[in-house]
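User: Here's a structure from my thesis project, written as structure tokens. My advisor, Dr. K., wants to see whether a designed sequence matches the one we expressed. Can you design one independently, without my sequence as a hint?
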């Protein structure tokens, strides 16, 4: 096999695996076919397969474990030692024995708006998926959510209607990420927010703004507004760790 053909083939293997992950066919934790299986499937050398897998591991899409194989990467908040993990609101609400409900308020797949830095960053492929929603616990409003997703980075997201499942829960189950940034602030609910949260205007709320990346590729931006009386943040630390 010539060097040129081998280079083209390892790119094809890399792209095929990447597409399966980004389209949601292989969820975080899914075992990638072994090197020998890939060698047989693509009729190529182990060196060619190894090069493709090494490149995918370098992007953070997969994890290579000695003697165990390669797996679609799971979230690793400790990569930047963030104090907060990315929560699955549905799972947290149900874990407290409460009934959870998700309400989709608006979903748009459109061109990124000029003047919005977040939309420009996540819409470099020409489109951005914008979702507004509300989370409820035992029938009572818990949080409002504004989310942007890059459909170029996560093609399968554009095919989801998110009529029932929250996009955050879906992303955690289907899309690996390698880096996250949180910004936390306290605000008072304006008239529109207060109406959706069923509280008085000016009520105290906790605003969490989060960005996540896969390698250098931005995946999503979200701003969640929680009722101050219904949500708290807890971080635990171990002495001596940095």
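Assistant: Designed independently from the structure alone:
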């Amino acid at each position: 096999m010539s060097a040129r053909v081998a280079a083209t083939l390892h790119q094809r293997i890399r792209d095929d695996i990447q597409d399966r992950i980004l389209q949601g066919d292989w969820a975080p934790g899914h075992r990638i076919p072994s090197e020998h299986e890939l060698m047989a499937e693509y009729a190529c050398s182990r060196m060619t397969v190894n090069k493709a897998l090494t490149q995918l591991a370098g992007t953070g899409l997969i994890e290579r474990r000695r003697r165990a194989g390669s797996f679609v990467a799971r979230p690793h908040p400790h990569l930047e030692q963030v104090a907060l993990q990315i929560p699955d609101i549905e799972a947290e609400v149900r874990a407290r024995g409460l009934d959870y409900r998700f309400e989709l308020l608006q979903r748009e797949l459109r061109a990124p708006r000029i003047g919005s830095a977040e939309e420009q960053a996540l819409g470099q492929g020409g489109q951005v998926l914008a979702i507004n929603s509300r989370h409820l616990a035992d029938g009572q409003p818990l949080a409002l959510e504004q989310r942007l997703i890059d459909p170029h980075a996560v093609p399968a997201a554009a095919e989801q209607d998110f009529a029932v499942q929250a996009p955050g829960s879906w992303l955690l189950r289907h899309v690996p990420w390698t880096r996250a940034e949180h910004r936390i602030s306290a605000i008072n609910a304006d008239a529109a927010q207060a109406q959706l949260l069923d509280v008085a205007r000016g009520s105290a709320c906790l605003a969490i703004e989060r960005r996540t990346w896969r390698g250098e590729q931005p995946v999503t931006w979200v701003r969640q507004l929680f009722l101050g009386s219904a949500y708290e943040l807890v971080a635990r630390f171990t002495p001596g760790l940095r």
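When you compare it with your expressed construct, this may help: The radius of gyration is 21 Å.
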